[in-house]
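thread: overnight batch results

M.L. [08:02]
morning all. the overnight job finished for the chain we discussed friday. pasting input first so we're all looking at the same thing
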Amino acid sequence: MSTTATTAVAPLTIQDAEILVSAARRAAEASGVSVSVTVLDAGGHLLAFRRDDRAVLISGETSTRKAYTALQLDAPTADLVDLVKPEGPFHSLPTALDRPLLFIAGGVPLHRDGRLIGAVGVGGGAPEQDHGFAVAAVSELV
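M.L. [08:03]
and the structure it wrote out:
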């Protein structure tokens, strides 16, 4: 009988979440963009959220849905946009679930030691900007 050892991976902490929020906001501020930032843990639970005073109101919702989408599909939302176009294989996925997914760039999954531990979502700028701010945040955590 063989046994396989499993290594525990540290979960995403509130300290990690604060680092992510701060890093995304710094990146956005450097570009002159007001954003909302959402951090979810591996179970999809909210760990941190921040909406800049001048960020458009919908950015709070979009940042959360982007993070949720990145977490559920374990992929940056920027990589998924073409999959939901009318000819794409995930065309019906955005409306197939109780909790809607959002296939707009700005959501990035978070990994530690090769395991999915959460996701960050940014909303408020152009999709490419939001993606860049989320990637900048993730690079701070590594």
